[in-house]
Design goal:
By secondary structure, the protein is of the alpha/beta class. The chain has a single domain, classed as Rossmann fold. β3 and β4 form a beta hairpin. The structure holds 8-iodo-guanine.
C-alpha cells in the first residue's frame, strides 16, 4: 500500500466535511488563533447560528487539539453570500506532528473550494505603541522554523504573499490598523530578549509560533491570504514584564469583541 499524499488526504477531509456539514462548497476559510476564539460567535449574521459545527477529529488527517485555550472544532457559517469555514484551533509546529499536519487545515480548506484564507494569531509585538489587544495586519513574514510545507522542486513565488488588496480592504474597515512583518519562531518557548532584538534587526515587528508555514501552503494552493496578529504582549525584553500564557489569554478575551467586529466587517467583502 502506498502512503496517501497530503493533497489526497486534504481531498478526503474536504469530502467528509461536505458530507458532515451538508455544504458542498466553502468560500472563505479562517483560522482563529490565540485570543480569537470568542470572535467566532460574531461571524454569523445577527442571531443566526452556524450551519454546522464538527470536531476536527471527525475529518481524516486531523489530530486532537492540545493547547489550553484552543478547541478542536470547525464551524461552517453562512454569512451573506459566503459560506465560511472556521477553524477554531490550529496544529502548531511545536507539537511535533510534522509540517504536513500543521498545514492540513489550509489544504482541506482549499480542497473544499475556499479561495481566500484568513490566518489569525496571538503574537508578541516589538513596537511599544502596540498595547496588549492591538490587531496588526501582517504585511510579510520571516520563517525561522527552518522548514517548509512544500517538498521537492516546488518553487512557489511568495512575493505579495499577504495580499495587498486584502490589507487595503481591512484598512477600509478599520483605518487605524497598523501592519508589520511576522517572524515565525519554532517555539514552544518564547524568545529570549536577544532573539527578539534579532527579529527586529532582520526586519520583523511581530513574533509568533504559527501562520508563516500555513500562509506558504495557502499560496501554493492558489489562495489569497489575509493575516492578522492580535498583539497580546510586548515581546520578551521589549518591556520588563515576564511573559505568561494566562495574561495572553486574558488580553485576547478583552479584545474579543473588537476582533469579532473587525472580522465580521471584513469577511463579507473578501
Ligand atoms: I500570544 O511573545 C504570543 N505568542 N513566539 N512570542 C512568540 N509567540 C507568541 C508570543 C510571543 N506571544
Amino acid at each position: 500500500m502506498t502512503d496517501t499524499s497530503p493533497y489526497d488526504l486534504a481531498k478526503e477531509a474536504a469530502a467528509t466535511l461536505a458530507e458532515l456539514t451538508g455544504v458542498e462548497k466553502h468560500d472563505v476559510a479562517l483560522v482563529l488563533g490565540s485570543g480569537w476564539l470568542p470572535a467566532a460567535d460574531l461571524l454569523a449574521p445577527d442571531g443566526q447560528s452556524p450551519t454546522a459545527e464538527i470536531a476536527t477529529t471527525d475529518l481524516p488527517g486531523f489530530g486532537a487539539a492540545t493547547v489550553a485555550g484552543h478547541s478542536g472544532r470547525i464551524r461552517s457559517i453562512a454569512a451573506g453570500d459566503k459560506q465560511l469555514l472556521v477553524f477554531l484551533s490550529r496544529t502548531h509546529f511545536y507539537e511535533g506532528r510534522g509540517v504536513a499536519a500543521v498545514v492540513h487545515p489550509v489544504r482541506t480548506a482549499a480542497a473544499a473550494g475556499c479561495r481566500t484564507m484568513v490566518l489569525t494569531n496571538g503574537a508578541g509585538g516589538l513596537d511599544t505603541s502596540w498595547s496588549p489587544g492591538t490587531p496588526v495586519l501582517i504585511s510579510d513574514h520571516i520563517n525561522l522554523t527552518g522548514t517548509s510545507p512544500l517538498v521537492g522542486a516546488n518553487f512557489v513565488d511568495l512575493t505579495d504573499l499577504y495580499s495587498g488588496r486584502l490589507r487595503a480592504l481591512a484598512r477600509q474597515v478599520d483605518p487605524s490598523l497598523d501592519e508589520g512583518v511576522y517572524v515565525q519562531f519554532p517555539g514552544p518557548h518564547y524568545e529570549t530578549p536577544a532573539e527578539v532584538r534579532m527579529a527586529g534587526i532582520i526586519g520583523g515587528s511581530i513574533v509568533g509560533m504559527s501562520t508563516a508555514l500555513e500562509a506558504i501552503a495557502a499560496r501554493e494552493a492558489g489562495m489569497e491570504v489575509l493575516g492578522i496578529s492580535l498583539v497580546t504582549n510586548l515581546a520578551a525584553g521589549i518591556s520588563d514584564a515576564p511573559l505568561n500564557h494566562e495574561e495572553v489569554l486574558e488580553a485576547g478575551r478583552a479584545a474579543a469583541t473588537r476582533m469579532g467586529e473587525l472580522l465580521s466587517r471584513i469577511v463579507p467583502q473578501l
